[in-house]
Amino acid sequence: MKQVQRGFTLIELVVVIVILGILAATALPRFINLSSDARLAAVQGMAGGLRSAASVVQAQYIARAQTTSPVNLPDGTAIAVSTGAGGGIPTAAGIQAAIRCETITANGANGVNCQGMTVAVAADGSTVTFQPNGGSATCQVVYTAASGAVTPTATLAGC
Question: What span, in angstroms and rounded, lies between the C-alpha atoms of 154 and 138?
Answer without folding.
Answer: 6
